[in-house]
Amino acid sequence: MTTETAPPAAKRVPSERTHHGDTVVDEYAWLAAKDDPETIAYLTAENEYTDARTAHLADLRADLFEETRRRTQETDLSVPTRKGGHWYYTRTVEGQQYGVQCRRAVRDGETDPPVSADGAPLDGEEVLLDGNLLAEGHDFFSLGAFDVSPDGRWLAYSTDFSGDERFTLRVKDLTTGELLPDEVPDTFYGTAWSADASVLFYVTVDDAWRPNRVWRHTIGSAAADDAVVHQEDDERFWVGVELTRSEKFILIDVHSKVTSEVLVIPASNPTGAPAVIAPRRQGVEYTVEHHGHRFLILHNDGAEDFALAFTSADVPGDWVPLIEHTPGTRLEAVDAFANHLVVSLRTDGLTGLRVLPVGSDDGYDIDFPEPLYSVGLDANPEYRTGQVRLRYSSLITPDSVYDYDLVTRQMVLLKQKPVLPGPDGRPYDPAEYEQHRDWALADDGTRVPISLVCRVGTPRDGSAPCELYGYGSYEASMDPWFSVARLSLLDRGVVFAVAHIRGGGELGRRWYDQGKLLAKKNTFTDFVACARHLVKAGWTASDRLVARGASAGGLLMGAVANLAPDAFTGIVAQVPFVDALTSILDPSLPLTVTEWEEWGNPLDDPEVYAYMKSYTPYENVAAVDYPAILAVTSLNDTRVLYSEPAKWIARLRAVAPSGDYLLKTEMGAGHGGPSGRYDSWREEAFINAWILDRIGRA
């Protein structure tokens, strides 16, 4: 990298806090003042510095962006999904940032989804929403809700133009194309229609931005007349709302990190009082799916990896076992159809699907051919159906959509995401790439899985560069996924690896429990063990290894930078949760109280305080030789505040000034970064160019 420019100077304004007899000085707390012109000026100066330090990569960024664009079929059409009398689908158009939501009437005798040549509009198409028109005049655009009423007449949709995930809810008459005067500001994700489409349920948040209320809105009335259906006052819990696939019940889901409760309202009686399926019990989680005269209950009551039961839909009571608990087989979801149940599960680190015909003991698992893959149900809105839509991919197989016949067990490929020829003009051939499952040995003897992909013939003598990705929180699993942009790295000889570390859910609930609360450090030491293993096994060398993670995975990046700075030549931390202790100590911040069951409550528990302080990245910056660090954040992020990476980079420069640290802030986006697809591609090209520069492949 060039060295002509100097980083902006972050002023030091010491601010003290004391907890459990421990006083901490925070010199950069002033950066949390988002509305202060000095803060904005500092972030702008950091962006200018990053631009100057990466100016030599401009041509490479342009090449990487062009490679992604060239390999992508820009004008495309998703596989239409049937709901009632219409096929619903999304179109993208070359040169346009956002999708176009459409539908077309089902024609007489039509059973297979219609197709079009080269993503062209279907004959008879009805445009429901054009994201490009909605986004005009805005730097950011996101849809929160997109919910067609059961009769197909109304469309409830919500929009966010800043990235703070606070949406304005509107209703469109699909028969006339006109917007109703109904408009509700500051809503959250989640809507549900009553059976007759006269009532729309939605969610709002409290002052800490916690989804805490479910509302009932009567179509044609003013938002001021809306009624609160359920308010959750326990700050550990958040709420959601949905209509069951059967369209018989409104479900109000109430969850904390470890406890849940579900309330139901008959969709035919939307003004009725919610009834509780089973009262909340600390540590018991359950979800509900309606199926005929019963509610299916997926739960962990005495079942670490969850079991499936049912109870009466008329008078909910005792839970009758349907699938007993099997240690090591994590049941994740159940989808009910008129004559079949489909259970989503994972075992041995891989996702799977189990089909249970109603009234039969002949249940079975669907087989898939690759050693590493990710599979799950796609949109399946029809309750009475003999087939389901699946989505499948792997590290070398592009996203694929299948229809699976639940009776004949035949699987038909409807569409695989096109991967067009790259810069050399050659079509994509998965046979030119190979994927592997490897295992690292953690400090405590635990075997940690690693998924890898590289070009065939990539050397195993330590000479290949490698990107190691990790997350490891909230029981979220980093299952193998295909990436068009990643091909640009693989074709330059880079190995891509995913560390399936504890704190994630790849190996079941125990895998998660061993990487949270007072066992959180296992997440970090597992990742370092994976990095060391990749070097020992000849996949790469430490001076060719770049680590990458986002959000809670950004906390992972900051922690391993302190724990093993010699293990990496570079670290990419996106929207990183690097000032975790400060945030979790402040219950007024968005989502803090709901996070205590994931990290612990350092406000009241001195042991949790001491433990978090021992690993949180910002608290543990030391005068050591750090790898180069690129931190990427967004000004309007409400999940991980921009100030966390801004403070972290400032402290790194002050305490370990010999390091190479960059901060890039999206000034008009949220947690997910830029919203348009071309802007997202440019962001990925920026990061990948920086990675290639670090590993000598620029």
Automatic annotation (TrEMBL):
Sorted alphabetically, the keyword list is: Hydrolase, Protease, Serine protease
Do the record's keywords include Hydrolase? yes
InterPro entries in alphabetical order: AB_hydrolase_fold (IPR029058), Pept_S9A_N (IPR023302), Peptidase_S9_cat (IPR001375), Peptidase_S9A (IPR002470), Serine_Peptidase_S9A (IPR051543)
User: Which Gene3D superfamilies does the entry mention?
Assistant: alpha/beta hydrolase (3.40.50.1820), Prolyl oligopeptidase, N-terminal domain (2.130.10.120)
Q: Which SUPFAM superfamilies match?
A: alpha/beta-Hydrolases, Peptidase/esterase 'gauge' domain
Q: Which residues form the Peptidase S9A N-terminal domain?
A: 8-416
- Residue stretches making up the Peptidase S9 prolyl oligopeptidase catalytic domain: 481-695
List every stretch annotated Disordered. 1-20
Family, as annotated = Belongs to the peptidase S9A family.
Would you tell me the protein name for this molecule?
Answer: S9 family peptidase
